[in-house]
Amino acid sequence: MAKINSFEDIKAWQKARELNKEIYKVSNSGSFSKDFGFKDQIRRASVSILSNIAEGFERDGSKEFKQFLSIAKGSAGEVRAQLYVCLDLEYITKEEFEKLNSLVIETSKMISGFINYLKESELKGSKF
Predict the structure, then answer these.
(1) pLDDT score, position 6
(2) What are the beta bridge partners of residue 61?
(3) Average pLDDT per block of 10 residues along the chain, 128 residues long
(4) Residue 26: in which H helix or E strand, if any?
(5) How far is CA 110 from CA 12, 18, 35, 70, 128, in A?
(6) What end-to-end distance do the CA atoms of the chain give, in Å?
(7) Residues forming a β-bridge with 125
(8) Are residues 85 and 101 in contact, defined by beta-carbon separation less than 8 angstroms?
(9) DSSP secondary structure letter of residue 122
(10) Torsion over CA of 118, 99, 86 and 27, rounded to 10 degrees?
(11) 118, 62 contact by CB (below 8 A)
């Protein structure tokens, strides 16, 4: 694995950023934009993914980092569930759902892969 100097180097963070951008785009239109509570909830869950990856990285300890990655993965699950609500309420099209769902699944898999890498790694960070 290439050396990671900042959270911006983490592929899962980059993918989560892409997902977040797309969530903001779709939630700015039509009936979705007027459902303020739900729009806010899915946006917060989406932001939580990349925020927890970044915060965990900055903690500088692999145990804490894995914990924050796990929280990020949980937020990805939350976004994924909420995408079904978006589809059911016709806030997004089937095509938008498929694109976003694929993106959130890919993000979640990348986070899982990173968690597994850290579990097997000798790297512990300066705190451990």
Answers:
(1) 93
(2) 125
(3) 86 98 96 96 98 93 92 98 98 98 98 92 59
(4) helix 11-26
(5) 5, 13, 31, 12, 24
(6) 21
(7) 61
(8) no
(9) S
(10) 90
(11) yes
What is the rounded CA–CA span in Å between residue 8 and residue 57?
10
CATH superfamily of 11-120: 23S rRNA-intervening sequence (1.20.1440.60)
Cα distance between residue 44 and residue 56, in whole Å: 17
Q: What is the pLDDT of residue 126?
A: 52
Please name which of 111, 105, 87 lies closest in space to residue 26, comparing C-alpha atoms: 87
Query: Contact, 59 vs 65, CB < 8 A?
Result: yes
Half-sphere exposure of 102 (CA within 13 A, CB side): 6
Q: What is the CA radius of gyration of the chain?
A: 16
Residue 123: its pLDDT value, please? 63
Distance (Å, whole) CA 26 – CA 59: 32
Closest CA to 82 of 128, 115, 37, 116: 37
